[in-house]
Design brief:
Layout (H helix, E strand, L loop, with lengths): L1 E5 L3 H12 L3 E5 L3 H10 L15 E4 L2 H5 L4 E4 L3 H11 L9 E3 L12 H9 L5 E5 L4 H4 L5 E6 L3 H11 L4 E6 L2 H23 L4 H22 L9 H12 L4 H10 L4 H8 L4 H16 L4 H11 L4 H9 L13
Parallel strand pairs: 1-2, 1-4, 2-3, 4-5, 5-6, 7-8
Antiparallel strand pairs: 6-7
Helix pairs in contact: 4-5, 8-9, 8-10, 8-11, 8-13, 9-10, 13-14, 14-15
The structure holds 1,4-dihydronicotinamide adenine dinucleotide and 1,3-dihydroxyacetonephosphate.
1,4-dihydronicotinamide adenine dinucleotide binds next to helix 1 and helix 4.
GO molecular function: glycerol-3-phosphate dehydrogenase [NAD(P)+] activity; NAD binding
Pathway: Membrane lipid metabolism; glycerophospholipid metabolism
Catalytic activity: sn-glycerol 3-phosphate + NAD(+) = dihydroxyacetone phosphate + NADH + H(+); sn-glycerol 3-phosphate + NADP(+) = dihydroxyacetone phosphate + NADPH + H(+)
Length: 335
């Protein structure tokens, strides 16, 4: 198969390698000449996962038309803030029956659309769009460390197609029909991971981190349920699995950013130092908008949104959170 991978960050690079290791010819589209040249000439992405040698059947280009020529399957792995613009550029060159897989985790601000929905909006035929999510740090997947992911699609054939492209003994893939649930979990767990990073940076202990993760999972479940997903998905790889991986791993950019933020580093400073996306920061804003529209209580999301985008001090945010009176443990999830 010929697989086109749109994006050349850490996750795109690791997934390009995974697909190519299964014998597929992978062409990566990069917005950066430097990345495309490094991949073609050295077989290594010079900016992300720089120690990882890509299989020989991976090439790269900055020409999106060339990248999409004769694609049997297309994978989007660009940050959420660039997804619409890039899907719009790609759309005229994508055949209407070509299956598409979305790796991006986020919610679009102002529209409240999930990432597969943004691609569907631009490229049409949403039934051929799947989403992959789960506890998958690119740094470990590219080393072949045992991992698992879920691929969700309305059409089981589309999910199965991408399972065939990516499956390996060390990369287990489960299927789901709950695209909304899988996408919502992937977006919101990044918010909770930033809050965990802030708490750990501020000196809170393991009890507090477990409290944030558990109440975070309840918050994710309420949002999933209200957006039309299945609360059970929150118990799976995209929910509980990714929440644990992102809230606890030193690989997580969201958690590390939270830690740095608690020490006074701004989002701009962190992103310009690392050249990496902190999806949870953008999701804090878009999920707040969405929660208000859906009428869902999402205190951790609101708190992070206040701290990141409305200049509220960490002390004020914390006081607001602990001033809340604890109520029924599972309100708003099961009717
Ligand atoms: N890194 C990981 O382990 C995982 C990442 N993801 C998700 O995958 C998505 C992509 O993240 P990463 O690959 O980690 O990115 P990254 O943080 O490693 O790299 C940043 C990406 O932004 C791209 N970029 C920067 N400016 C751009 C522009 N003007 N136009 C187009 N692209 C531009 C870079 O080429 C690069 O692809 C995110 O939504 C992330 O949440 C999901 C699972 C695992
Ligand atoms: O989604 C991820 C792991 O599954 C990556 O998380 P970070 O963006 O926090 O590194």
């Amino acid at each position: 198969m010929k697989i086109t991978l749109i994006g050349s960050g850490s996750w795109g690079t690791a997934i390009a390698g995974r697909a190519a290791s299964n014998g597929n010819d992978v062409i990566m589209w990069s917005h950066s000449e430097e990345c495309a040249r490094g991949i073609n000439e050295q077989g290594v992405n010079p900016r992300y996962l720089t120690q990882y040698e890509l299989p020989k059947n991976v090439s790269a280009t900055t020409d999106i038309v060339k990248a999409l020529e004769c694609a049997d399957g297309i994978i989007f792995a660009v940050p959420s803030t660039h997804l619409r613009e890039i899907a719009n550029q790609a759309a005229p060159y994508i055949c209407e029956t070509t299956p598409i897989l979305c790796l991006t985790k986020g919610i679009e601000s102002t529209t409240g659309l999930l990432m597969n929905e943004v691609i569907g909006d631009e490229c049409g035929h949403p039934e051929r769009i799947a989403a992959l999510s789960g506890p998958n740090h690119a740094e470990e997947v590219c080393q072949g460390q045992l991992s698992a992911a879920v691929i969700a699609a309305e059409d089981n054939d589309v999910a199965s197609f991408f399972k065939g492209i990516l499956l390996a003994p060390e990369f287990r893939i489960y299927l789901s029909g709950d695209v909304i649930g899988v996408e919502m979990c992937g977006a919101i767990k990044n918010i909770i991971a930033i809050v965990c990073g802030i708490a750990s940076g501020a000196g809170f202990g393991d009890n507090t981190l477990a409290l944030i993760m558990t109440r975070g999972l309840a918050e994710i479940s309420r949002l999933v349920h209200a957006r039309g997903g299945e609360a059970l998905t929150c118990m799976g790889l995209a929910g509980m699995g990714d929440l644990v991986a992102t809230c606890t791993s030193p690989h997580s950019r969201n958690r590390s950013f939270g830690h740095a933020f608690s020490q006074g580093t701004s989002l701009e400073q962190y992103q310009s130092q690392t050249h990496m996306v902190v999806e949870g920061a953008h999701a804090a804003k878009s999920a707040t908008e969405l929660a208000h529209i859906l009428g869902v209580d999402a205190p951790l999301t609101f708190a992070l949104n206040d701290a990141l985008w409305h200049g509220q001090s960490m002390q004020e945010v914390l006081t607001n959170l602990v001033d809340r009176v604890p109520t029924e443990e599972f309100y708003g999830i099961i009717e």
